[in-house]
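Data card: per-record layout.
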Amino acid sequence: MPISSKQIRAARGLLNLSQKELAGKADLSVNSLNNIEREVGSPRNDSFQAIEDALVKEGVEFLDKDGVRLAGEQLEIEKIDGPNFLNVYYEDFLKAFPHGNGEVLIIGKDNKRFDHFALERLLAYKRFEAVAMKNNIRERALFLENDTHFLSMRNHYRWVPKELFGTVPVAIYGDNVSIILWGPPARMIIIRNPGIAQTFRHHFELAWSMAKPVPDDVHKFHYETKAQKILEQAKKDGLIKDAPPPKTAKKARK
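The structure for this 254-residue chain is written out next.
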């Protein structure tokens, strides 16, 4: 049974969301949402479902008799293994920000330990990067000092000393934390919980504040002589269809 207009209004109030914000999360127009809340016209059931899905994702639980409440603490743990776990890794970043405008924070990722310059792994990242740049999904990454294995054309890197660099790669994005275990076999654990994600985010920000920015010329040189060179050669060999970007991107503002 679809949720009611009263429940939608009440849920927005609980979350302190404007109609514009909720409409964006439900992929509806503000006018459509406004009509639904005012019980004007004959909205489609899939519009109600889209609103319900968006509100549930934000932590609302719907009860009988037009009731709503904030759901209890949400905790989901997922384990991913197999040779293609990196594809899931990057895809999960994008799923966390279906409308773009997000940020992925990475720490402890040692590209020398796990060969991310292998063509399929590099292409997996590049597919993510292309969508991320289009949808304004930003990245910041903390690397071990003097690590120059840069996969991204965007210089979003900082170096941290060994004592601040964990040996287990962690990515924080939205309400999610992904942890890579090198194994063998290599596998990934995804924890979905707002509190846990926020705790990891605080630790990242502290380390970021003490980290040393990678100079643009250093990033440009090593990106062009490693990742970009591999992509250009693969293009010449007919292994990929699209040519890699010819130049490094301008450094994004943090």
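Known properties of this structure: The longest strand covers residues 138-144. Residues 243-254 have pLDDT under 50 and may be disordered.

See the next section for split statistics.
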